[in-house]
Design goal:
10 helices, single chain, Alpha-Beta Plaits, two-stranded antiparallel sheet, 274 residues, alpha+beta, 8 strands, NADH Oxidase
């Protein structure tokens, strides 16, 4: 990061807000040492006179920086809460592609999510052309797991229900790959979220879901795919989950062919005050 000494008014706000103490005051002006800087951008965001900018325009372009605008930036709390209450996991999709611009906006919601120490370690795999290949590998893995679960007398009864479901899904796929799809529900896009630290990826996926809904799309998180990735190295390789990376979420995305009319009830939140 760099400081325009002509603009700096010596207010010390950037110094106070720097979490890694990389900014000091020299002759009444801010001086960024760039020794422990993690390029979080707090100094850029807080400066009242726009005296601080990126020293790496290729990776951190100042063209992306937006000035605060109350009309465009603030969200009414009640509207936000209602927006979150109204979201539904969607498994009924239209036979309609998702525009590339909307996919990039969803990725952008992940990109601008906070990460610990600003590591920005979250990455994404967009699956469109190889959806059937991924689906086949997932169903093969689930079917193999189902066989083991059914053979194990210690498998809980409620889990056996899933085992039989997986076997039927695999059998149906073999008989007609283009028939009923109880795995991906014929969603046109799969976005896999991966990260070095699971929390960072989970936060990104949560923000991405909000953007999905704001764009008039629908999504659900595939737990079945998560199970398959855990036991199938070839699937993990296909989804490009590399060394040191963790699979975090699989988001099936498309245009809903249903319109929900209202929110739903939930149990009371479990809260402990200590």
């Amino acid at each position: 990061m760099r400081v325009d000494k002509e603009k700096c008014i010596g207010c010390t706000l950037c110094t106070q807000d720097c979490i890694v103490s990389d900014i000091e005051m020299v002759d009444g002006k801010s001086h960024i040492k760039n020794e422990t800087c993690i390029k979080c951008g707090h100094c850029i965001a807080i400066c009242p006179v726009k005296a601080i900018s990126s020293d790496d325009e290729e990776a951190y372009s100042m063209d992306e920086v937006l000035e605060y605008d109350k009309e465009k930036f603030d969200i009414d709390p009640e509207n936000l809460m209602n927006f979150m209450k109204f979201r539904r996991s969607v498994r009924l999709f239209k036979n309609q592609d998702v525009e590339e611009e909307k996919i990039q906006e969803i990725i952008g919601a992940g990109k601008y999510t906070q990460t610990g120490s600003n590591t920005q370690d979250v990455s994404y795999v967009i699956v469109k052309n190889k959806l059937q290949e991924v689906r086949k590998m997932v169903l093969e893995s689930l079917n193999a797991m189902a066989t083991q679960m059914i053979a194990d007398e210690n498998t809980p009864k409620q889990v056996i229900v899933y085992a039989h479901m997986w076997q039927k899904m695999y059998k149906d796929f073999l008989e007609n790959p283009d028939g009923e799809d109880r795995l991906f529900f014929k969603a046109p896009v799969l976005v896999v979220v991966k990260a070095n630290r699971v929390l960072n990826g989970a936060l990104a996926a949560s923000k991405m879901e909000l953007m999905v809904n704001a764009l008039g799309l629908g999504t659900y998180f595939s737990g079945f795919l998560e199970r398959a990735v855990a036991v199938n190295p070839e699937l993990k390789e296909l989804l490009q989950i590399g060394q040191g990376e963790e699979f975090v979420a699989a988001m099936l995305i498309g245009y809903p062919r249903v319109q929900y009319k209202r929110t739903v009830p939930r149990k009371a939140a479990k809260v402990t005050v200590i």
